Amino acid sequence: MQNRALILNASFRINERRQTFQATWCRFFVSLLYLLWVSLVAGTNDECPVELNPKRVVVRYGSSVSVNCSTTVSHKGIGWEASEGSVPMKRDQNLSTWRVQSLRQWDIQPQCYMNFDRTGSHDRPQCESVLPITIYKTPDSVSISTGDHTGPMTEGSTYELHCDVVNVAPVQNLTVKWYKGETLVHTETFTDTTKFPVNNTSTLQITADRRDDGVQYRCEAELELGAEGPQPPPTVTSERINITVYFNPIINEAKLPSTVSVFRGYPKVLVCEAEGNPKPEITWSDRNGHRLVTADGNHTVSEFGVGDFYTCTARNSVNTTTRQVFLELQVISINLSHPGPLIESNQYRLRCLIPNMVQAMSVKWYKRQRPNNQETPCGINQTTELTIEPNRTDDGAQYRCEVELNIGPTSSENISIQVIYISISLNHSGPLIESHQYRLQCHIPDVIQATSVKWYKRQRPNNQETLCRISETPELTFEPNRTDDGAQYRCEAELNPGPSEPQQLKQLTSDLLSITVHYKPTINETNLPTKVPMFRGYPLVLVCEAEGNPKPTVSWRLTNSEINGGNLTITEPISQELVCIANNSVGVTSRNITVVLKEDYLPLIAGLVAVTVLVISVFFVFIYSIYYKTAKMGHYSLKDAKPSVPNGNIAQKGKDNPLPMKKLSQIDILALS
Question: 305 Cβ partners below 8 Å, 6+ apart?
């Protein structure tokens, strides 16, 4: 450029005037001036009053590019300097465009320069602005491989996966991403600043694991070119590579425990399953090492092999795994959470004892009761316990549990229970007689320690229960009355539990004892008074009703006869007393009745009322007729009548002529009369 040459020539002229200095000082000074010139070119871009549009360029190799350089200050020339597409300096323009149709120089550094007008305040004749430019090229190919290894991998060994990226630029913008399936597992970037296309390899180290068997790996080469670059960033993906991992067998211990239980009558299949790659071979041998005949890796044993060891061997090309199994005989048993007799209505637990190694799908409970020994199911649980509350009917019952295994049902032995309870009795058989004294007895077993006894009575019809006594003795003396018929008694013992008794036990109650009370009849006096009036000519019905237990028979006794039934009809007055008799097995009740004759004045009263009504009616008719004659029938006078006034009509010569008429008042009528 012209101004750069001027600077160098000026430096040489200065050196000629200073010939007295040594040549080394001249060279040193020239070097300082050269460094100053370089700093002016490289370090003053921010002070150069030109604007690049765009400020930074990202171009695909072989594509076109165009950048404008403009200024708003006075200058002596503006232009572009580049190894391709240089633009000569122009003095009369404020805009210069650098344009290349097919950019193929990787290290090109275009810069826009401007020569200052010397009339300005600038202390240098020229400034430059370098255009940041990135030329990129996507890879020709991206491939993935396992390096020097071929074939399956072995679990636990380390391997390298290579991602080869061919002919990519610039490599410092390259990012290689590794994917395991669809999961990003590793990312690698590069620091090489070369601008030319290069071949690059990314390496991923993996340790083979059985979980990686069949998994796919791939890599992606991505050029991160910033905001000025293409979006999304150009990416080239490799093919997927499948990984095959060989691993040693692992026997499924859940399906083959170290101890296996065998039940009598049920053969047991020992299942030996092993996972491995390649698929392992399964064999069985006895405790002496003799190989056993098996089917698909399964071996069947029975109760006759109890106490022996059996060995399962799983073998493949990687390794060999063995598992030893011990065979034991198992039984199902049952026990009770409480020793000795059970107390009625208390809770107890039956336990079905199943060995820990046995996997029970369900537990069924059965109860067999006397006297018919019929067995009934009483529960299906997922647990091995059954809670029972025995009552007196369960005394002597037998329980057993049946465990449903995958081989079939297996039952325990029967366990019998003894139930103790309190009962109530009466020192009399049959119905009780009202007001007689009786004694109730509460029978408490000797093994039960009762602190007190409560007596309760429940009466009909509302079945309300009341406490009738608390005593320290198991007896109750009472005198029933008729309201107690059908009542129910029970006794309740307050207990003092011993050390072996359940602590939740507080009371023990008996069954209800119903009583029947007989009492002599009682005649209903409300419906049958001692004196009954009778009117002559009217029959009289006497009703005798009686209440008693047993139901009484009712009859009427006259002087010379006795009539059965509670209703007695009398048609004629009698002077003798009548007797109503109610009789049952407890006693007899009677009631004397006197019939009182009374005259019937009802017809006479009715006649008087009728005559009175008739007289009153005649009087009202007479009064009404007088009123009608005087108020509705008028008297008129023709005195002082004038024909011209239309007060009436008079026929004249065959025509109706108006004739004035005057209506007379009541006073006028009386005066005329």
Answer: 262, 327
Mean pLDDT of 308-319: 92
The residue assigned the tokens 């061919």 is 166
How deeply is 394 buried, as exposed, middle or buried, from its count of CB atoms within 10 A (0-12, 13-18, 19+)?
A: buried
Same domain, 268 and 194: no
Domain count, the chain: 7
For 412-561, list the strands marked E by DSSP: 415-416, 419-420, 423-426, 432-433, 438-443, 450-459, 464-471, 475-478, 488-495, 507-509, 513-514, 517-523, 531-535, 540-543, 546-549, 553-557
* Claim to verify: residue 367 and residue 492 sit in the same structural domain: no
pLDDT digits (tens, 9 = 90+) for 595-631: 887 766 666 677 788 888 888 888 888 888 887 777 6
In a domain, 626, yes or no: no
Q: Is the pLDDT of residue 265 over 60?
A: yes
In a domain, 346, yes or no: yes
pLDDT digits (tens, 9 = 90+) for 485-506: 889 998 888 877 655 554 455 7
Distance CA 219, CA 216 (A): 11
> What does pLDDT average to over the chain?
81
Phi, psi of 232 (to 5 degrees): -70, 165
Residues 508 and 531 in one domain: no
pLDDT in tens, 137-158: 999 999 999 988 999 999 999 9
Give me Rg for the CA atoms of the chain: 66
Place of tokens 């090309």: 317
Query: Is residue 608 one of the residues assigned to a domain?
Result: no
DSSP assignment of 319-335: -EEEEEEEEEE---EEE
CB 229 within 8 A of CB 296: no
Cβ atoms within 10 Å of 284's Cβ, excluding its own: 20
DSSP string covering 591-649, please?
EEEEEEEE---HHHHHHHHHHHHHHHHHHHHHHHHHHHHHHHS--EE-TT--TTS-SSE
Q: Is pLDDT of 99 > 50?
A: yes
Q: How far apart, in whole angstroms, are the C-alpha atoms of residue 398 and residue 35?
A: 115
Q: What is the pLDDT of residue 32?
A: 46
**CATH assignment at residue 169:** 2.60.40.10
Q: Is 239 helix (H, G, I), strand (E, B) or coil?
A: coil
Amino acid at 16: E
- Other C-beta atoms within 10 Å of 405: how many? 18
Answer whether residue 603 is part of any domain: no
Q: List phi, psi (to 5°) of 46.
A: -65, -25
Residue 261: count of CB within 10 angstroms of its CB: 19
Q: How far apart are CA 10 and CA 34, in angstroms?
A: 12
| SS3 label, residue 668 | helix
- Which range marks the domain in which residue 370 is found? 333-416
Mean pLDDT calculated for residue range 630-636: 57
Residue-level pLDDT at 540: 85
Indicate whether 507 and 592 sit together in one domain: no
Across-strand partners of 439?
A: 477
**The two structure tokens encoding residue 215:** 């998994």
- Contact between 519 and 481 under an 8 Å Cβ cutoff? The reply is yes
d(CA 49, CA 113): 10
Reference 137, options 243, 55, 63, 51; nearest CA is 63
